[in-house]
Design the sequence.
């Protein structure tokens, strides 16, 4: 059998990296919603 290789720092904490990247994106994206056309901001489904 092949030996298992230890996970690197990136792979070990991948979920944390994803969360740390998504949260600032959401927080930074909210103030910039004012630049979107009004129909893109609506939460109602379009037909």
Sequence:
């Amino acid at each position: 059998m092949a030996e298992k290789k230890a996970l690197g720092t990136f792979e070990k904490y991948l979920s944390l990296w994803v969360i740390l990247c998504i949260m600032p994106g959401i927080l930074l994206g909210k103030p910039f919603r004012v630049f979107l056309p009004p129909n893109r901001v609506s939460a109602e489904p379009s037909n």
In short: The radius of gyration is 19 Å. The helical segments are 9-12, 14-29, 38-41. The chain has a mean pLDDT of 79.
